[in-house]
Design a protein that fits this description.
CATH topology of the largest domain: 2,3-Dihydroxybiphenyl 1,2-Dioxygenase, domain 1
Helix content: 10-25%
CATH class of the largest domain: Alpha Beta
Radius of gyration: 14 Å
CATH architecture of the largest domain: Roll
Length: 118
Amino acid sequence: MRLDHINLTVSNVTEVSSFFKKNFGFTDAFEDNNAGMAVLSGDDGMHINLMKGSRISYPKMFHIGFDARTESKVNEIFERLKAAGLEMKPPEHTWGSWTFHFECPGGNFMIEVACEKV
């Protein structure tokens, strides 16, 4: 069974939506996306639902992860995000993968970009 969607509560729907579209290729799934709720569609058919909320609290280890497929793609994404001003530790080999983590702007949660270590 394929995972269809994940619902994330965020402080700034517009900022997070723009971030996912610019950096991870998501598109608006519906024309009526707005500052209160947006549904984004990935190229693999998965959806991310963004809902505006207050007093957002995710567990300490909560994050969402993107499979970049290759180490060079992980590095490319890292450099692009770094050039855009995000502060992150560089990618590293850990738990069988080449990976880095960062806090999603406007999102109150962590994102991991990784690929399987070959």
